[in-house]
Amino acid sequence: MSSDVPAGLTVRDAPIDRPLESRPPAGAPNVVAIVLDDTGFGQLGCFGSDIATPHIDALARGGLRYNRFHVTSLCSPTRAAFLTGRNHHAVGMGFLADIPLGYPGYTARIPKSAAPMPRVLRDNGYATMAVGKWHLVPRWQRSFAGPFDSWPLGLGFEHYYGFLQGDTNHWSPNLVADNHYVDPPRRPEDGYHLTEDLADVAIRNVKDHHHAAPGKPFFLYFALGAMHAPHHVAPEWVAPYRGAFDDGWDAWRARCFSRQLESGVVPPGTTLSERPQWVSAWDALSDDERRMMARQQEVFAGFLTHTDAQIGRLLAALDEGGHLDNTIVLLFSDNGASAEGGVEGSANEHRFTARIPESLADNLAVYDDWGGFRTYNHYSWGWAWAGNTPNRLWKRYTWLGGTRTPLVVHWPAGIDARSGVRSQLVHVNDLWPTLADAIGIELPAVVDGVTQQRIDGSSIRATFSDPAAPDPRSTQYFEMLGSRSIIHDGWKATTNHISTGVLDEEDLAIGSRDFGEDRWELFRLADDFSESHDVAGQHPEVVGHLAGVWLEQAEANNVLPIDDTLVQRLGAFLAPAYHPGASAVYLPDASPVVDESLPMLFGGFTLRADVTVGAGAGDEGVLCALGDWNGGFALFLKGSSLFFAYARADQVFVVHAPADALSAAGRHVLEAACMLEGEGGRFVVRIDGADLAAVPFEGTLPLAIQHGGTSLRLGHDAGFPVTDEYAPPFPFTGTLHALTIATPAGGEHDADGEIRAALHHD
Length: 762
Hints:
Layout: E1 30-36, H1 54-61, E2 64-66, E3 69-70, H2 75-84, H3 117-123, E4 127-133, E5 159-163, E6 175-177, E7 180-182, H4 194-212, E8 218-223, H5 235-238, H6 248-263, H7 287-320, E9 327-333, H8 350-353, H9 360-365, H10 381-387, H11 400-403, E10 407-410, E11 420-422, E12 426-427, H12 431-439, E13 446-447, E14 450-451, H13 462-465, E15 475-480, E16 483-488, E17 491-495, H14 503-508, E18 520-524, H15 540-556, E19 583-586, E20 593-594, E21 605-613, E22 621-628, E23 631-638, E24 641-648, E25 651-656, E26 666-677, E27 680-687, E28 690-698, E29 711-714, E30 735-742, H16 751-759
């Protein structure tokens, strides 16, 4: 007996529904974006430096150098502009992600109407990977609770490894893998260095991707912490530069300029801009000052060469895997060289936030360890000025020293020119439209139902083959911390405004500190590559016109209102949605707690540990610790004595109870307190409510214990210790039931401190 089989009952005649996976155009190139930090126009070998950068130089020989490439003059804004193709204020990143404000241009939140490059590439069939510095997550959103929509995975990357803040310790960084914090894979004593770790992960990601999906193009965002301070590097990288900078920044800058002219990266007829009056001539320094300043540049040079070597490892891996020929490699810096080391340079940048003045004597005391484990170092602003040769000033300003940085483009399969120099007016927001053009995809008008805002950048792909291709724009505005400039129709107008953030500048720099008194200086860029010849007096009508164009651009891009401090904007500061307030309880066996999730400690505090210990002196170890000897605190038991150590930058205070103070077994309350009194205060340790020892201190507590972020650990420590009295991890052998952190109610908010702390870790 038989029966009819309905159509589609079996697989033999059922239709096949194959989900369509997004695929990029045939032959689409890989993209690798290498973003350096705080690297000036003249600091790479291929842009005139005598510091060895052979792997970057090889990229330039095989591709193109752009000598009129511009960024925003600060970190978070440049990165937002690169990843979105929009002006930084237009996507809410008018300043640093650490200072979110309730003004459209300063929210520190990239809007849904500006879907970033990794999201669009992912939607077009690319694999997306980010390794390194991020600095696009608003303050208060960098904890375990998120929200994570501004983290790399929330903005379109599929893998992430690096650090979220503006800087970190290269020996002992504050690391994140995807959406959670992790410890480094090795200790600094075992040879760990962040840049090497980042290169390891980037290389492994590329190999893993190739093994899993050969032929699928990828986007790798390789954003290094270098060359931002701290300039951390092993001594063997510094040794080749011993004595190389003994004749100082004036002579070095002149030699750099000569090489720039000879190589063609700077056009003939360019004037070497003058040294600012407030930056000392090298010959005016004392012997000790010259010795110390030269050492600072030796370490910076070693750090840069070490960084170049790690970039070389990545490029070699791309070549070995057969990827390099059809990979667009972009290499650029987020802003010009940094002058945040001030006059003297700094052995520990956290001294600034702790209001500890820099001194030559303190720097000389760590001369031999400059760049080592005990330092968080930055060079003098004299070297920042030299590093931006031939341009004026440095990071944070909209003079060319802040906004013009190196750009190298390398793509053997798509660029026939080798060792070429391109002089078109290019902005960082042009790079994403250029990549989309080269890949062959259109930027979407709608993403997730949200209409996308205008793209401010334009493709420069035509310049790959045509050195005379037209500029992608004739107008570009700049604004940072009140410093303003505008490029329009071949002119550049720049205000003489002095910004907030570096105390030495506020005290010594010559310029306007009142917007009503700002003076626009005027330059004809075709004849004045380095912005050296002010012709405002000859062309007052052009000055007036350009000031009006700047205002039009500011209104169109959410630049207004501008300010150079936080004081006027304090009421617009976006507070956290959830915060512990004046007191919070923390339980053991949990992940480290990001410092931004803790009560604010700068007005005094009490740490209260509820523990159970055995009899005698058997139990010891760390009860809680945050940070290290560069800035932090630790409460720990050692030899049945209670210790508290507080590192205010590199000043470490240690107070401890008598050795027999904790001899009884059982449950106890162990406390450390910081009480502010008069012009200073006291650190006190207590057991079961009884004060047992105190150490006085003068001055104030820092607003931020460490600029690069750190985390509270319970029952152990990691990385470097706060004091040499113990060595991490030094786990507590008793039982820790809970830790309470209590602070005085209220407390005056330090608005200027907020902005200064943020600037010193950008």
